[in-house]
Amino acid sequence: MSQLFGRYGLPLDVKYCKKCTINNQRPSASIAYKNTKDESKRSISFGDDGICEACKWAEIKKDINWEDRKKELETLCNKYRRDDGRYDVLVPGSGGKDSVRAAHELKYNYGMNPLLVTWPPQLMTEMGRRNMDAWLDSGFACYTVTPNQKLHRLLSRLSFENLCHPFQPFTLGQNHAPMYLSTLLDIPLVMYGENGAEYGENIKQNEKPTHDESYYSSNAGLDELFLGGVSVQEIINKYDFSLADLKPYLPVNPYDIERTGTQMHFLGYYLKWHPQEEYYYSVENTDFLPNNARTEGSYSKYSSIDDKFDWLNLYTTHIKFGIGRATYDSAQEVRNGDITREEGISLIRRFDGEYPTLYLEDCCNYMGITVERFDEVIEEFRTPHLWEKDESGQWRLKYPIWEGR
Ligand SMILES: [Zn+2]
Domain 66-270 is in which class? Predict the structure, then answer.
């Protein structure tokens, strides 16, 4: 029998969704604190009709009765609303368009008292700073969980060198720190904006408003939890950090979750979410501003612009899965009917996988590596079944979308 799966457990037979621009190499979000170097990933599944889960979900969404969902949200808010001077809902975010809308809706349309929780970007862009300020200026208080920066730099380097995933420390904190804070502050309701599942996770996830507890809670031992591909026990022993420093990155103890009654909800379950409209909502209701130029690697100006590491992160996904920033942006916009598939393909051809020069040096300095080392790691993780060299010795995708697969 011939081999079906290659590096990272990705299917060797590369296919593109017939409706949008995503390919079947796109991994679903896995449980981050279990990520090790050699693990296999579950990737987005395609039906026999050649259509991806995310597109299927976009269709199902059209039949959802959003008026009923709004009532469900009202009921949820009534259950948690407090008028005794305490905050009643945590909204994680850092001033991006989704978190702006979530906080604004809850406060001004549902009468809640949201407290923002920010796990700051690894290296905030100027635009990110400005949008964060605009968010606070629109009437919110915020608790910022700033991790030990010596540790954060180390984890960024380990995540990059071991997993080619320099963004992992941000993701871990973004998922775990608000849940940890929920238990510390006794605010059980935590409301995120959209559910990543809409973009190709297991679509069963979208049928309920909450996220599985296993994403943010575990009683695994320190040698079973991994950050940057290294066990927590090893980070403590080898690099001399304390467990207290590592806490905000780690899943929360199930006992604490139960005691507080902590639940992670997605506002995207209750209210119709549409990235371009979230952007307009943010502009209308706060001073949110898009980037002043197109984003390197894509054509868009408003998504993932607050962290300099976003640029690196979406370059690494192009190397590992053949999916860069323009693919992610266009897949979503095709699905939402903002652009056609053909327009998406020509944008991908033009911009996807552009080398992330803009912030590369800043990010390398942050991780304590040289740009040469960056390039070396990138080559180590280039997926062989996706890439080949052309006559001039330049890497090119073996099966690009514009060659009609
Ligand atoms: Zn699709």
Answer: alpha beta
